[in-house]
């Protein structure tokens, strides 16, 4: 009994630590001046395709990385904090495949996770999992929304 209570306290402390880290990291991430940025235009799979713009930001001088998402033509963005990143070489001489998990932070609370798997310029998988409902939503690239510039152009 003592062991499970200790484990539960450890999980609670770990969640609190992650939330605190996100509280501090997200505003700093958006305030940083990135030296490099890239973005993806994605649309939801299903009857009502949601439009989503995913932006990576990085500063090569400090090795900082961050991201944010914007839904449709909304003016507001949702900051993301990198939770994990793994790469693997699938075939010699080919681009590595990377899987990144980004934590969504809204009003200081972790509300979901985005999982992105890509190989070179190809998005292999992009999912969003809502933390409260547990539902997962799939997205595919919306190449028709990509134009020159720094954001998606939705029709």
What would you say this structure looks like, in words?
The chain has 155 residues and is an alpha+beta fold. 19% of the residues lie in helices and 47% in strands. The chain has one helix spanning 2-31; strands spanning 36-44, 51-59, 64-71, 78-88, 97-106, 109-119, 122-130, 136-141. It has an 8-stranded antiparallel β-barrel. The protein starts with a helix and ends in a 14-residue tail after the last strand. The model is unreliable at 1-35 (pLDDT under 50).
What does the secondary structure layout of this molecule look like, with pairings?
Elements: H1 2-31, E1 36-44, E2 51-59, E3 64-71, E4 78-88, E5 97-106, E6 109-119, E7 122-130, E8 136-141
Antiparallel strand pairs: 1-2, 1-8, 2-3, 3-4, 4-5, 5-6, 6-7, 7-8
